[in-house]
């Protein structure tokens, strides 16, 4: 299980590091996009700041996931990004074929696996919620 954990940490973290850096220094070509998906990405680029913030958050989250010590925190940073990527791939890019499903399956399975392996890190959030509800 430790090997699988390392594999998912380095691949998931590496994907986010690479794509985060790519938002500043383009070295990965853009894949083919459907017209409405291209308009969405174009709108993000035209805002002038949102694309860069997304890149910074991907770099931070990816680095934390790769670090090992801060993987649980990195996963929390990446959760909203993964939700948006999976939604984008499955809704806006679904006509492209099989690749969006593969990437979505990888992001979800790697994220869930890593989070499950670190479930103790997240339990205190739920204990805190439980103690707050008992006070009322």
Automatic annotation (TrEMBL):
Superkingdom of source: Bacteria
Main location per the UniProt record: membrane
Pfam families for the chain: DoxX
Bilayer topology annotation: Multi-pass membrane protein
Keyword Transmembrane found: yes
Subcellular locations according to the entry: Membrane
Claim: 4Fe-4S is one of the keywords in the record: no
Entry keyword set: Membrane, Transmembrane, Transmembrane helix
Entry's Gene Ontology cellular component terms: membrane
Transmembrane annotation, as ranges: 7-28, 48-66, 73-91, 97-116
Record's protein name: DoxX family protein
Species of provenance: Leptospira tipperaryensis
């Amino acid at each position: 299980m430790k090997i699988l954990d390392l594999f998912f940490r380095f691949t998931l973290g590496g994907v986010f590091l690479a794509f985060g850096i790519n938002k500043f220094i383009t070295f990965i070509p853009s894949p083919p996009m459907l017209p409405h998906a291209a308009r969405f990405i174009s709108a993000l680029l035209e805002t002038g700041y949102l694309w860069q913030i997304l890149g910074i958050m991907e770099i931070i989250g990816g680095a934390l996931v790769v670090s090992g010590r801060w993987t649980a925190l990195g996963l929390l940073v990446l959760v909203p990004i993964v939700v948006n990527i999976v939604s984008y791939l499955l809704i806006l890019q679904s006509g492209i074929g099989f690749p969006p499903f593969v990437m979505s399956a990888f992001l979800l399975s790697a994220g869930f696996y890593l989070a499950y392996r670190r479930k103790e890190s997240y339990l205190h959030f739920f204990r805190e919620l439980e103690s707050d509800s008992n006070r009322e």
